[in-house]
Amino acid sequence: YTGSSRPNNVTFTNNVVYRVGRSYYSAPGVHFYQSTNTIIDNNHIQNVPYSGISFYNDSGGGSNTRIRNNK
Length: 71
Known about the structure:
Structural class: mainly beta
Distance between the termini: 30 Å
Strand order of the largest sheet: 1-4-7
Strand content: 35-45%
Largest sheet: 3 strands, parallel
Helix content: under 10%
Radius of gyration: 13 Å
Number of helices: 0
């Protein structure tokens, strides 16, 4: 993504993510790429073989990101 085409104002809250990655073991529970103004709050992520939350950015992505209160 470049410029304004990045995902913006993304909210992912109060979700249950359970037993993902059963066929593709390096799959995270949730993955965010180059998003800005992102809120990831109060989620319950369980039985994930790799990582629960994956957040990747380069070239200035990921500004104003809040990740908290996840289990």
